[in-house]
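pls design
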């Protein structure tokens, strides 16, 4: 009987999700507008540096129930506006992420290219704040850019999406494998932590099988881990090694 009511529950969840997104967008717009207001007044020397602290104190004194407008946060709003004011595409993209996500990106990333990368990947992969923090800390941007330079020109021209599909290196710190470990330990750990493994790979990857049998002529070979990539629309085979890369691994 409860099965008949699942559609209603789904409608409620969808509506709630839309409402949360609408509130978030309005909040980001507010922070942008406040940041612009402060930036323009400081730029025209109408305000000195101390006025921002006075503004924070005024807000707290007159509207004590309103939180999140300390002088530190007001300076962050100014930085947020000044970071993206000349980049309308990124400004629009920032509205689709939470303030915590935005704060991590514009305060921790060193270039506009790096910020654009994390804005896009956070939206595409629907990163939680914790996962975004982990990816920034482990240099996802740098690992992806290094990996792209190693792709041949033919591969880059063959499919634009391939340039962002793979990283130069992957961080599997979530496995907590004891030292030393072998390929079997690594494979078991990745299978056990499949959710985190796919978060590290990217959510375009779909797990197909482990020890997947491939027949070539009269010989049988086994692929350690086989995935399907939705964006590239192709199979991706993983051969696991627990030691340093060697040419014979190819």
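designed seq:
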């Amino acid at each position: 009987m409860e099965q008949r009511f699942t559609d209603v529950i789904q409608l409620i969840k969808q509506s709630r999700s839309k409402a949360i997104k609408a509130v978030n967008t309005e909040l980001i717009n507010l922070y942008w507008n406040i940041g612009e207001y402060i930036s323009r007044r400081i730029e025209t020397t109408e305000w000195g540096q101390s006025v921002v602290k006075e503004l924070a104190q005024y807000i707290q004194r007159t509207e004590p129930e309103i939180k999140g407008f300390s002088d530190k946060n007001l300076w962050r709003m100014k930085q947020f506006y000044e970071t993206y004011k000349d980049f309308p595409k990124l400004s629009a993209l920032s509205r689709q992420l939470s303030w915590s996500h935005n704060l991590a990106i514009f305060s921790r990333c060193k270039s506009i290219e790096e910020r654009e990368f994390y804005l896009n990947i956070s939206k595409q992969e629907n990163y939680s704040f914790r996962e975004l923090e982990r990816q920034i800390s482990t240099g996802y941007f740098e690992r992806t850019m290094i990996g792209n330079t190693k792709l041949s020109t033919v591969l880059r021209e063959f499919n634009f999406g391939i340039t962002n599909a793979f990283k130069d290196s992957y961080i599997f710190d979530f496995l907590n494998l004891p030292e030393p470990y072998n390929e079997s330990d690594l494979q078991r750990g990745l299978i056990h932590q499949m959710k985190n493994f796919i978060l590290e790979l990217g959510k375009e990857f779909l797990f197909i099988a482990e020890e997947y049998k491939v027949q070539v002529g009269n010989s049988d070979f086994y692929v350690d881990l086989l995935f399907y990539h939705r964006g590239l629309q192709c199979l991706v085979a993983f051969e696991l090694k627990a030691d340093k890369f060697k040419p014979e691994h190819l």
